Amino acid sequence: MGELTTADxxxxxxxxxLTVVVEPEGVLVAGxxxxxxxxxxxxxxxxxxxxxxxxxxxxxxxxxxxxxxxxAAVGAQHGTFVRLAPDSVELMRKFHVLPGQxxxxxxxxxDTAGKFRGQMQWQKASLAGTRALSIQLAMxxxxxxxxxxxxxxxxxxxxxKVDQVLNLAKASMTGDVLGHHQALHRAVRTLDESGQLPSAxxxxxxxxxxxxxxxxxxxxxxxxxSIDGFDASKPVQDRASYLQKxxxxxxxxxxxxxxxxxxDSLYLWQRxxxxxxxQTEPEHLELVVATARKMLxxxxxxxxxxxxxxxxxxxxxxxxxxxxxxxxxxxxxLKRDVIQLRQDLDSFATARRSQVQGWQDHEDPSVGDAxxxxxxxxxxxxxxxxxxxSRGLDAGAxxxxxxxxxxxRVAEAREASKRTPDPEAAPAPRDE
Length: 432
What we know:
Blueprint: E1 17-23, E2 26-31, H1 33-47, E3 51-53, H2 54-57, H3 59-62, H4 65-73, E4 79-84, H5 86-94, E5 103-108, E6 123-124, H6 129-146, H7 152-158, H8 162-168, H9 177-194, H10 199-205, H11 208-228, H12 236-249, H13 252-280, H14 285-318, H15 325-329, H16 332-351, H17 354-357, H18 365-372, E7 378-379, H19 383-387, E8 393-394, H20 402-419
Antiparallel strand pairs: 1-2, 1-5, 2-4, 3-4, 5-6, 7-8
Helix pairs in contact: 4-6, 6-13, 6-14, 7-13, 9-13, 11-13, 11-14, 12-16, 13-14, 13-16, 14-16, 14-18
């Protein structure tokens, strides 16, 4: 199917079948190891940093039963799961590096030198019954497993503060979030290593699902409410006071980290739920897989909106007006809070794989430029800033760099005016 053949109808020497399953969560690439490696190189060449290869870069993913079942469904022994930024997917479809339509596709890709043969020509293939369901199961499981990059940093950050954050989010009834995360992680690790989910393990963890959904939604609501409270029109001293409240009292940074942990816990629980239904109620497996994929898509959309809103509000909120410079510079706490919140948003973006999700691809460039300038180094902003009694401006306290640039231009203009003779001024005496 999709093979290139010689004139006599025989399959050309050195050619290998490549199977590519394209779904919203990612791409399953399967086939001969040489073909898979060559194709992954092609993806990286065309998409650069917008590619995350799970099966090669992470042994934990490569060894899962989910990947094995997906490979078995397409008759392959080797493969990997790849995440691609949405814009990269469309571009690679345009140039035929990816199939034009989602689903199951095949082609023959390499010659005796292991090189791709000209333009890729994909042929749509059909999968029915249990094979199609196996593919859907594999894609859902791998998407759940790779949705969160890592939680180690988040766990270290919130340890000892979980109860306080849950109280703020009105989710204190949900119990030991960190303990639940550890228990779920152990159960999933056992499942990946042994392929078994004992009934006792599932029975002890099954009640956690609804509570975890409550934690996720309430944490997200708490974070959204804190971000909505930013009002860039208020005086700098009021903005400084609210920002300190958000960072220290509302625990916005810790809330973002705990959201990552709660989401990871829910995805682990969903993996166990899928396995349990597969073992005991296979007739409902397709429905359970579909609901898990829908939940994951909704979480990605909500988290993307949350991140972009937070970044935009911080950029606007931290910008200052010219007459506010002295008040701004007098508050070291304010500068620390601005930088801390930027770092908290960056950490959340990393944990949720924002780059490969393409969340920031269409963000207002001024927001990215502004946040890139946040830091702890002081920048001189010229004569005007010095005249206002400042020795320099922190990049974050300087309206994310905008104010510093404005003052520099003003200072340069004044300096230039000094060098330009005033036509109404009396001429300076000349030396005879």
